[in-house]
Amino acid sequence: MMDPLASSRHGFIRTVAAASAMLVAACAVSLQLNDYYLYVVTIGAIFAVLAVSFDVLLGYTGYLSLAHGALYGLGAYICAVLTARHGLPFWAALPVAGLATGAAGALVALLSFRTRGLYFAVLTLGIGLVGHQLFLVFDQVTGGVGGFVGIPGPEQPAWLPVSPVAYAALLALALLWVTFVAASLFVRSKLGAACLAVREDITLARALGIRVAAARLSAFAFSATFAGLAGALFAAISSFIAPESFTVLGTGFQLVALVVVGGMGTLWGPVVGAILLTALPEALRVASTYSLLAYGVLLLVCVIFAPKGIASLISAAVRRFRGKSKPAPDPARLRREATP
Amino acid sequence: MSLLRINGVEARFGGVVALAGVTLDIPEGVIFGLIGPNGAGKTTLINVVSGLVKPTAGSITFGAEAGGPWPIASAVSRGIVRTFQQTRAFLGLTVRENLRIAAVSSPDPACIEELVDACGLAPVLDRVAGDLPYATLRHLGIALALALKPRLLLLDEPAVGLAEEEVERLGALVRRWHAGGITVLLVEHNVRFLMEMSDRVAVLDRGAVLFVGTPAECQDRQEVIDVYLGRRQADAAD
């Protein structure tokens, strides 16, 4: 009999291959775009990084955290301070921002020990609000409401002859690839299985020896690390950041929408959600009155007609296509197999 | 030699006394049946031993180790594993994903292949657990527990709701794993199944141990017939 636990490794190789093909295609297409659309690609990819990291927490572990926007901001400010004030190169500041934000995420997990459901959401709402206020209050460090200006961009290697805007888009797409592959590896690991158990039935998880606190802590730290990396890249690419980019009501709830519309617990669904929900407002920017209206209608339509997210619709369509394209079984072979 | 020694365990919930000083010795390598009327404290005792409920008094010795009961994760790491009265599996996940979770804490994940075969789960590996027939779901719940290679398996009413032939399959499964060296504490209302399976039986009534002995001795004791077996027979006749 086949090993009942074997499917994971093949699935991971297929996922990496598909993600790599998508990365190459996205880079090739992006290099044909003008600066404005390159900027849209960059922001879309950064939000996709955030959405994938958020999906590990919400989709795989079952925790609706509203502090993710503040963690994204923390990564951005750490990168800004290290590069603009302390002269650290972007490539050194990036991992520091990621790791420090990951540690902050672990702290959120410890603070919210034993809370679940709505209580957890409200607790993280508080953390998100406090985080946003700290960005405003510590204006000596963050620049306060006026924002942090003059953040150095990522150093561009001489061997890559593309414009700085195109380079930023390539970096954002590369970070998305790294995040996606790392998240795929995480959810297929023992920790990922433990997170699924925590999401589904915490009592049964405990009865099966799952260390619930360790699973939660790792999911929070993993998710926050990539939120911090996204924030650091956003800060370096934008050269200016302000607290308004990291609010609970803005980024915090937008992330929930991206993941729910895309499809929770799929990793690639939130990427689709991020592309759709960041591209749409930009596409409708010419008619800004209708932009928010269209955004709201899109959310309603998705939640009513695709409650499991766009990913479920795409998966169903692919299954149907595969079913139709499969060759009809050979009746002689079926008879042979049925004969004892 | 005793594998599990329960010493004067008490459990109170507000004014309700669920366990009133239970003392039991469960020898290593036996199937130990536990019966009693509803509310006798059988499930509470399993909850205490497995670390899900903290007793108000008393202690547990497991093997040579005193100082129990331990929190549930520590109990599992010592080899005390339980199933639940209400069928419990990860209902939103496939059978394969359920087994992958059990493999996280399993000291021998290779045994899962054998379990899949023994529990008849091979044809349903990619089905969502919530869509499985009841009997298959019961077997999945037991497979998850057995995947942890327990020293002591606590089975809380595993046969409830199963048809006769399914109960026989369940019995064969438990016996097969018991023969591999697992001690079993079996709580069950299906008296025939319990008596056939068990090497020794204890009867609980109102949180206290009424009787401990072999199944044959148990069925002959007047006080057991009075508080439990007689009532079961009367219920069956109704």
TrEMBL record, chain A:
Membrane topology of the entry: Multi-pass membrane protein
Parts of the chain that traverse the membrane: 12-31, 37-58, 65-84, 90-111, 118-138, 165-187, 208-241, 253-280, 292-318
Localization of this protein: Cell membrane
Positions in coiled-coil regions: none
Top-level lineage group: Bacteria
Keyword tags: Cell membrane, Membrane, Transmembrane, Transmembrane helix
Primary site of residence: membrane
Record-linked Pfam families: BPD_transp_2 (PF02653)
InterPro entries: ABC_transp_permease, LivM-like
Name recorded for this polypeptide: Branched-chain amino acid transport system permease protein
UniProtKB/TrEMBL annotation, chain B:
Record SUPFAM superfamilies: P-loop containing nucleoside triphosphate hydrolases
Entry-linked PROSITE patterns: ABC_TRANSPORTER_2 (PS50893)
Protein name: ABC-type branched-subunit amino acid transport system ATPase component
Span of domain ABC transporter: 4-231
Organism encoding this protein: Azospirillum picis
Gene3D superfamilies: P-loop containing nucleotide triphosphate hydrolases (3.40.50.300)
PANTHER family found in the cross-reference section: AMINO ACID ABC TRANSPORTER ATP-BINDING PROTEIN, CONSERVED COMPONENT OF ABC TRANSPORTER FOR NATURAL AMINO ACIDS-RELATED
Assigned keywords, A-Z: ATP-binding, Nucleotide-binding, Transport
